Amino acid sequence: VQLQASGGGLVQAGGSLRLSCAASARSFSSYTLGWFRQAPGKEREFVAAIRWSGGTVYYGDSVKGRFAISRDIAKNTVYLQMNSLKPEDTAAYYCAADRVIASSVYRGVNYDYWGQGTLVTVSS
């Protein structure tokens, strides 16, 4: 499985960005696709995840109500729409894929595949 993240950039506080993660695999039916972020000097943080089959979504507390994760099954792509961005959202954002549907979506160690990061910088 290969994951290609894109869409990062520089935005002012209050602005929006949409990240994309293009995924390649034979079948994603049992997968969970997630987004994590890591700011300099901080631990990796769960942002959002979506079950490929059924579309159940999960969010980290710090982004609830501002971010939305979605998927396009035909394009094998997961999106992270980020609204009302804050300077504390500045981080490298990574997409990841978990093969095991029963595992906790919140823990990065449960994910089997990772894409390269895309940098999001929010200026105040």
* Rg calc: 13 Å
* Strand count: 11
What does the largest sheet look like?
A: 7 strands, mixed
Order of helices and strands: EEEEEEEEEEE
Q: What is the helix fraction of residues, given as a range? A: under 10%
> What portion of the residues fall into strands of 2 or more residues?
over 45%
The termini sit apart by: 37 Å
Overall pLDDT, averaged? 95
Low-confidence stretches: none
Overview of this protein structure:
The chain is 0% helix and 50% strand. It is mainly beta and 124 residues long. The radius of gyration is 13 Å and the shape is globular. The mean pLDDT is 95.
Tell me briefly what this model is.
The protein is mainly β.
Keywords:
mainly beta, 124 residues, 7-stranded mixed sheet, single chain, globular, 11 strands, 4-stranded antiparallel sheet
SSE topology sketch:
Layout: E1 2-6, E2 9-12, E3 17-24, E4 32-38, E5 45-51, E6 57-59, E7 67-72, E8 77-82, E9 91-98, E10 113-114, E11 118-123
Parallel strand pairs: 2-11
Antiparallel strand pairs: 1-3, 3-8, 4-5, 4-9, 5-6, 7-8, 9-10, 9-11
